[in-house]
Amino acid sequence: RASWAMGRVARVLAAAVVSALVSDGLAFQCDGTRHLPEDRVNDDYCDCEDGADEAGTSACAMLRSSSAVPRFRCTDTKGYEPLDVPAHVVGDGICDCCDGSDEAWNDRVQCSNECERMAEEARRADQERQAQLQMGYERFRSYCDIGTRQYEAEFAEMHETRTALERVATEVAELERRKAELSTQQEKERDQRKKDADTVWKQALALPQLNVEQKSTVLLTATIEASDTGMETLMGYLTTHFPSELTDSVDDVEVFSLAAEVSEILNPTDEVVVDPAGEATKAPPPSARTVDTVLAELRQALPLESAPDMDH
């Protein structure tokens, strides 16, 4: 009952305000968009969308049930945002509208017009907000530009790296192919040299007119010319034809080193080396010793002359 009584008082007060406005010869402002003549206010027909023209009747009860209470629109805001106040606060002695229009017919209170001041404050606040938005937008664009440049630079670098990797992969594949070809070729040459060395040794050692020294010279020469394959065959020959007490004392590393030294002396290369200053010069000879000196050491390292019989 108290709620109903308060609603009734609000409607009566709003109706009184509307009647006062109309009785003073002023047209009723409806929704802030149009004006109604006197005979259409409180005529038991809801003309205004907010139901303000029927504050004293129940014609706009459906609107009031959804929007709580009828609204009163402040008349002159002078650039400030339009304001609607509940109809029941009109004439209550409190200045709700910035222009005081809600208390215009209340002799007990004088409302100053604050609309221009409030509009100016609102404009300044809006300008500050717009300035902040503009500053934020410019900073955003700056970050976007920086990010775009970084992305383009990194993308270009990635493209260059990918291109370089593809080029290196192609070169590696070509090197692997050439390596396989060279390996196959070297293996064939190695097998052929070994066969040739075996043939030369068998033919030379089978000659009856050769003595031990001559046979050892042939064997050493063939070993040197046959390089690593000759060394394998030489060591195999020593193991087969010499007593174990002689071959066990042979230093394979020393024999190979001496044979390689003789081979380098007999077959010097035109190798070019680059010194720290960047000058290209011909490589020095691998050994300053003579062939005879190295061969003498090689003969001492091998038990050739100690063999009981080299004709087998």
Rounded to the nearest angstrom, the radius of gyration is 59 Å
Please state the structural category: mainly alpha
Q: Would you tell me the overall average pLDDT? A: 72
- Classify the helix fraction into a percent range: 55-70%
- The fraction of residues in strands falls at 5-15%
Number of helices: 7
Order of helices and strands: HEEHEEHHHHEEH
Termini separation = 141 Å
* Total beta strands: 6
What ranges have pLDDT less than 50 throughout 5 or more consecutive residues?
Answer: 1-10, 20-25, 307-312
Description:
There is one protein chain. By secondary structure, the protein is mainly alpha-helical. It has helices at 2-23, 61-67, 115-205, 212-241, 244-247, 252-266, 291-301; strands at 28-30, 34-36, 71-73, 84-86, 272-274, 280-282. The protein folds into 3 domains: 2-113, no CATH class; 115-196; 207-306, no CATH class. It is 58% helix and 6% strand. The protein is rod-shaped and about 155 Å long. The protein starts with a helix and ends in an 11-residue tail after the last helix. Residues 1-27 form the signal peptide.
